[in-house]
Amino acid sequence: MTDCVVHIVDDDEVVLHSAACLVEAAGYTVRCYTSGRHLLDLADLSGVILLDIDMPDLDGLAVQRALASRLPALPVIFLTGHGDDIMEARALEAGAIGFIAKPVHQEVLLNAIAAGFEAARQARRSHA
Asked: How many helices (H) and strands (E) are present in the chain, helices listed first?
């Protein structure tokens, strides 16, 4: 089912693999990307986005802005090892539904993903 896909974007392949294993073990379909540009190249996106904030080339906030202009109801959850209160506030003001510090605790991440899918369902209901 395409709407149960979790897209994970992180330039650190160890973090990417670790998060993918955790999310797949919880029963979700996972798609991995090592850059925000790879994610943005996709024409059809649905599900939930787990997005690193500190990446070379195109940072997570820029990816979030690009996604918001195309798919404003797509839930974005930031994962960061370098975030601060200002960055968190910017991400949440721009519509992110979560801002999680690395290393990620399993329960926190899975709860955020579940909240993302619930937010997507509510957005679809309100558009119907």
From this structure: 5, 5
